[in-house]
UniProtKB/TrEMBL annotation:
It comes from Pyrodictium delaneyi. Pfam families: ATP_bind_1. Keywords: GTP-binding, Hydrolase, Nucleotide-binding. Belongs to the GPN-loop GTPase family. This is AAA+ ATPase domain-containing protein. It comes from the Archaea. Residues 2-169 form the AAA+ ATPase domain.
Amino acid sequence: MGKVIVVFVGPAGSGKSTLVAAYAKWLREGDASVYTVNLDPAAETLPYEPSLDVRSIVDAREVARKYGLGPNGALVKSMELVTERLEEITSKIAAAEADYVLVDTPGQMEVFLFRDLSWRLAEALRGISPESYAVFVLDASVIRDPADYAFLVTMATAVQLRLGLETAPVLNKIDLVPDVEITGDLLRDFGRVSRALREAGSVYAEMLREMLRVLLKYNRRVEVPRVSALKGEGIEELHRLVLEMSCSCGDLS
Ligand SMILES: Nc1nc2c(ncn2[C@@H]2O[C@H](COP(=O)(O)OP(=O)(O)OP(=O)(O)O)[C@@H](O)[C@H]2O)c(=O)[nH]1
Ligand SMILES: [Mg+2]
């Protein structure tokens, strides 16, 4: 088996960095070798010691000073500079001797996804390993009803289309959700989501139901892992998902 590469994408503060730390720890406890990559030039502190840190190449604070930019301008400029140096980064990932490479992306999802860096990185990673995937991390408190489940799956699909990497949604911070009715059972049962959307009877609910039906036709996985990166819970479920993605890659070859 070559290396498995997993890119963590998600809104600011959803827990990408904490999840990279928790997953790396879990994998290492199982005797796997892990190479962690921090791609966030604006990260202040990280909950793990990155094997490769983009801040040694581009540091957003230095960029802000040098070009006289505010935080957002500095981030956008930093993304451009990282893109220029991408080959340096990806050649280190290619040379890394590891079973798993975990890539932590910039806190501001939009400066990553809506710029060239995202698809260029994905393209380079696919060249390094056909087993390159993305995980879309969302804060579990966002999910309150069946329509939100459809939103989550749709967002993950949008990331997948943008990156060209198979992308799975993961709900983080499950420890903060007291009501597990929606984030618990419902997420494991697409039939229930679909019925609830039909019963809602609105045009939007019907639209979401149709969208879900189409999305799931091309994607056999309906279960969304629920994890607490902070408490290190549910990581096994996340790992099972990563293995499932690598199995379907095997099916195609
Ligand atoms: N309760 C709880 N808090 C969490 C969990 N995962 C992360 N956090 C907290 O959420 C905050 C953001 O976590 P990060 O891992 O920095 O999230 P991120 O997506 O990397 O954030 P940025 O890169 O800054 O956008 C931190 O205070 C974490 O401690 C979790 O599972 N449960
Ligand atoms: Mg982060």
